[in-house]
Design goal:
Distance between the termini: 85 Å
Number of strands: 17
Order of helices and strands: HEEEEEEEEEEEEEEEEE
Structural class: mainly beta
Number of domains: 2
Radius of gyration: 33 Å
Strand content: over 45%
Strand order of the largest sheet: 7-8-9-10-11-15-16-17
């Protein structure tokens, strides 16, 4: 009898099994020292075991300071597989920690670090407004008249750029409005510089024939680079184009060459 009582006491004093938690490994899951980008979505996973698991907490910290936290309840399960989308809005080295708790209050945790940086194209996203400055010349040949070349300096051209992130890490797409003409342009980011793909436009010039002023259309091509400095997108590049001048009895051609500069201010609208 005493032996049976002793066995029963031993059974009643059985030591509780502490929970465990491990990081889910595999393609698509975050792992130690993963490179991530701010405000992008990633998948984190944990596998927990124990007796009557009741809670799993995921938290993100930087230098010991809490950045974000989420908690899910578990219905007293012996195992629990957790997978969730996660994002980071703070840059630097961040620590992701998974903490599991059982019904007796016992906990286990696992942590890993990620390196979060601003997405390369993110710094360019926004609205920019200002004047581009064109310096160059146009030359025209009109039937019955001497060829004419006219120079212009710092001709102001109103520009609005609405820039959004492209599909790739280094791609941007912009709605470009030049003197109230709107078009879509794409660009590639390297450091603080975005190189826009060559794009086309049609502009109108006032051309004085002496007896009348005509307004020839010129098909132009822009090759532009923008450098972002202190909230300003500094532009530099070239503009070339040509067109026909056919007005009544007059016919001829017009060619344009210009260097483009100026700065656009980043706005909050």
């Amino acid at each position: 009898m005493a032996c049976c009582i002793g066995l029963m006491l031993l059974a009643g004093c059985k030591k509780k099994v502490a929970p465990t938690i491990t990081l889910t490994q595999g393609e698509g899951y975050l792992t130690e020292n993963a490179q991530v980008y701010a405000n992008e979505s990633y998948t984190v996973g944990f596998m927990a075991t124990g007796e009557k698991l009741v809670e799993l907490e995921t938290k993100i910290t930087k230098d010991g300071v809490l950045v974000s936290r989420s908690v899910v309840s578990i219905d007293a399960q012996p195992t629990y597989s957790y997978s969730s989308s996660i994002s980071f809005d703070v840059t630097g080295t961040l620590t992701v920690t998974g903490i599991v708790k059982d019904a007796d209050g016992q906990t286990a945790l696992t942590s890993f670090n990620v390196i979060c940086e601003e997405k390369p194209n993110a710094r360019f996203v926004g609205n920019y407004e200002g004047n581009a400055l064109a310096t160059g010349f146009y030359e025209a040949e009109v039937s019955g008249m001497e060829p004419i070349q006219q120079e212009f300096t710092d001709r102001e051209v109103p520009v609005i750029l609405d820039v959004v992130a492209g599909e790739g890490l280094y791609d941007v797409v912009a709605t470009c409005t030049i003197d109230e003409r709107t078009m879509t342009v794409t660009g590639t980011v390297e450091g603080n510089t975005v190189t826009f793909e060559t794009f086309n436009d049609v502009i109108t010039f006032d051309y004085d024939l002496g007896i009348m002023v005509i307004h020839p259309e010129i098909n132009v091509t822009y090759t532009i680079v923008g450098t972002l400095v202190d909230g300003k997108l500094n532009l530099e590049g070239n503009c070339t184009g040509n067109g026909d001048m056919n007005y009544g009895f007059f016919s001829g051609t017009i060619n344009l060459e210009a260097v483009v500069g100026g700065s656009l201010n980043k706005t909050t609208r």
